[in-house]
Amino acid sequence: MNHDQNCIFCKIVKEEIPASKVYEDENVLAFIDISQVTKGHTLVIPKSHHQDLFDLPEDCSKHIFSVVPKIAKGLKQAYQAEGLNIVNNNGEIAGQTVFHYHVHLIPRYGKGDGFG
Ligand code: 5GP
Ligand code: ZN
């Protein structure tokens, strides 16, 4: 598996720094965002280091997007959310700050819930 020793999300994968895990399988990890914009804000990442969507192998994106709906449904139920946004920033220009590919799952609770 491909890791970048300076990458914060690779450190989470290697359990060098802690994270609150929501889902894990052989290739994918999901954990709570350190600064949740709404309750249950979760990041879904490949365990292997890929910078962004443009750097993501097809089998990897297929696997991530096959588990995202399952994780989203679990979050909606666990947090009693009304809805959920899926956000994915690719490149600094698009607002990406951590350059290990990740998908944001942001549960929504109504007006004033902190997002949008
Ligand atoms: P981006 O802006 O790249 O789309 O999102 C990066 C996200 O990673 C941000 O929402 C930020 O709060 C989250 N984040 C950054 N460092 C850590 C960390 O060490 N642990 C966790 N759980 N989330 C982090
Ligand atoms: Zn990484």
Automatic annotation (TrEMBL):
Catalytic activity, EC: 2.1.1.-
Organism (species): Halalkalibacter kiskunsagensis
Transmembrane segments annotated in the record for this chain: none
Motif Histidine triad motif: positions: 100-104
GO biological process, one term: methylation
Enzyme class of the recorded protein, top EC level: transferase
Domain of life according to the entry: Bacteria
GO MF term list: methyltransferase activity
Entry protein name: HIT family protein
Portion of the full-length sequence here: 1 to 116 of 144
